[in-house]
Amino acid sequence: MDTIKDYLGKNRERFLDELIQLLKIPSISADPAFKKDMLTAAEAVKKSLLDAGCDLVEVCETPGHPVVFAEKIKDKDLPTVLVYGHYDVQPPDPLDLWDSPPFEPVIKKTKIHPEGAIFARGACDDKGQMFMHVKAMEYMTQNDVLPCNVKFMIEGEEEVGSAHLDWFIKENKDRLSNDVILISDTGMISREAPSITTGLRGLSYVEVEVTGPNRDLHSGLYGGAVANPLNILSQMIASLTDENNHITIPGFYDKVEQLSDEERSKMAEAPFNLEEYKKKLDIEDVYGEKGYSTLERGSIRPTLDVNGMWGGYIGEGAKTVLPSKAHAKISMRLVPDQDWKEITELFKKHFESIAPKSVKVEVKPHHGGFPYVTPINTIGYQAASKAYEQTFGKTPIPQRSGGSIPIVTLFEKELKSKIILMGFGLDTDAIHSPNEHFGVWNYLKGIETIPWFYKYFTEMSK
Amino acid sequence: MDTIKDYLGKNRERFLDELIQLLKIPSISADPAFKKDMLTAAEAVKKSLLDAGCDLVEVCETPGHPVVFAEKIKDKDLPTVLVYGHYDVQPPDPLDLWDSPPFEPVIKKTKIHPEGAIFARGACDDKGQMFMHVKAMEYMTQNDVLPCNVKFMIEGEEEVGSAHLDWFIKENKDRLSNDVILISDTGMISREAPSITTGLRGLSYVEVEVTGPNRDLHSGLYGGAVANPLNILSQMIASLTDENNHITIPGFYDKVEQLSDEERSKMAEAPFNLEEYKKKLDIEDVYGEKGYSTLERGSIRPTLDVNGMWGGYIGEGAKTVLPSKAHAKISMRLVPDQDWKEITELFKKHFESIAPKSVKVEVKPHHGGFPYVTPINTIGYQAASKAYEQTFGKTPIPQRSGGSIPIVTLFEKELKSKIILMGFGLDTDAIHSPNEHFGVWNYLKGIETIPWFYKYFTEMSK
């Protein structure tokens, strides 16, 4: 019987190559043009799970993109781990900022990844991290060391708000029953400071449209006399934050959990170098809510970001147009105990109320999710912590992340089990950005750590 | 000998068809992809001027798009009219808002144009209006009633700020010598209320770029902690106007001419129906600088309009990105005695000064032009007024327009002659917008009116 280290040594190249093949499929869930590629990706995931030793694997239809479900049931009396991940990826644009095409993966060395990193859309988020679980499964079945039952639920709509996962879970509650849910779709602080995510921010994502005149106008003839939707939208967006970068939507902060001084000083102990942070981003200064540190602004405080904005003439050269419409995509990251549906309503009501009479405003909610905080005194967390100690030689730091996996609160509510967020990516991996990548070291370290989690979780569950 | 009315009766269909052929050429000066089409259009204009009876016609190279120059010199002692126009057009986008393709002209009846209007990019601005002069010339030479010398200067860069016309005029001063400059590149109030433009606003057009982090970031991990260029740009743009819609750039109003109460009450006599104006644009209310009427806001007051804005994810669906960059195209319409170069400098300095330390800002001036006001006690204006009386049966109203023809002040400065702005378009012709059109009635009325101007101008110059 091989240890996981032996097995990794023997299969390193194949593990990399298999991931690269998966990364070549442009499974962009947001764009209907890639619907066929979504199916191709789902089938590829299905095959990999069969190869990894699952007994039953199924590409399950949903009203949107399919979910890949798989399981290996050893014994009904043993505990069951449910692995969640996603095979869809973010749109890759702006394409011109990629050093190599997003769906032609290449391995390149970087300062942070001296062993090389795989550059491709989805390398880290989430194909690479999801595939660690497939390969860990392969190791355990091939070497007959799988200590418990395993289920996989790999969806294709995470990047579009898990539009139909709610439906899928409710339809398949019994089939998905489990004792713990394991997800690798977050990051860790660094190689030297491994961490486990214990909190996620919630999300409310909306799209707004401001309409002025019924057609684009000549800005010379009408400028100054007719409301310009771009000027108005800028003013409306600007008014959503005050001079201290507090969000001005009435009621927005009502349910925000206030951390105790003790909790805040504990947070402040996490390794963080502000100068290095600014240098990496090439910014002269950070920017955010008054009274909070950068780490706090990015994790325990809610935000309001414009994710996209457009209107008027955006081509080469000059066009003197007073546009009929202006658009923005705006997202708010939420923290406990904000309710995303309530926040979406508050936003809509407020945004409509601040529009001058000269324009019409439409607010379209996209999707959202609740914030999530997981306790660290559970068997699942303790098993994960011991697994990291085994492979990193250090106790991982529990850390609240600024990101969102909107679906986690649903998991807890519907499936009644705790979620363990074992993420192996780094902040610098440029997920959702051009040149997304995932360190080869991180990928292999993930595969190495996961079987230890199964072992400890099964032992501790007895 | 035919009267102009007879000649129009016989040649109506041909005059329409020839314009339609010219409108089929996509001569978009702003976009380098259409360079070849620009040459095709220049050659077509050349041919039309030769056919109209000019003795000498030349497509003159410039460092940019060429200028078509033509002349017919009858007698050096007779006065000379210089006709200025342009064969380039605005970019047609957004294409999906056109009811028919912008370069496939169609004639359709509208409420305002019961005889039909030609729908095409450039129909009114300025191919249609420029071509009226070509056809009026044809009538005068064919019927031997041309009373004076004529020169044509038809450029290809008006929609990109007449980038090289300055150079061309300085290089060809003698050749361009004239007694009056005639331009049809403006509008009139209505069929029932013909008007001659006596003032134009100036222009300063700039493009701004706000850069935050050196790459697009995940808005969950960085949102709230790093300046978002789209939020910042919105705030910066919003701060450029105050609660009364005054522009806040220091020094911006210093040189703005204040009209006397008498002048303002005279302006207020121009026919204008606010309810109809709002209805046509489908807006609930107008919007503009406090203390000024809609007509004033659109003509005697300076403005600041965002003509285009973009950044982040603007595709289908949602992407939670904190973009690295945000962009805007901003234009200011200027009034006497604002200096566009000075205003551009004031803008740049102010805009850079209001940027927070967390972002970098770049301001790129595009182009500009001085505001212009023409006196009405000149022979040129009087001749034009008499020509309108002849064909409209009414004395035209002198009117200051909100638009800009940046080059007119240069004409006056370099060529030492007055400019007459005989425009036959209507406000509703949607120039610079989707579904630009030019009334068949207006086109023919222009051709009918122009020869009368030549006649009266020559007579009054004796």
Automatic annotation (TrEMBL), chains A, B:
Transmembrane segments: none annotated. Signal peptide: none annotated. GO terms for molecular function: metal ion binding; peptidase activity. It comes from the Bacteria. Keywords: Hydrolase, Metal-binding, Protease. It holds the Pfam family Peptidase_M20. InterPro entries: Bact_exopeptidase_dim_dom, Cyt/Met_Dipeptidase, Peptidase_M20, Peptidase_M20_dimer. The keyword Repeat does not apply. Residues 199-357 form the Peptidase M20 dimerisation domain. CDD domains: M20_dipept_like. One of its GO terms (biological process) is proteolysis. PANTHER family: BETA-ALA-HIS DIPEPTIDASE (PTHR43270), SUCCINYL-DIAMINOPIMELATE DESUCCINYLASE (PTHR43270:SF12). This is Dipeptidase.
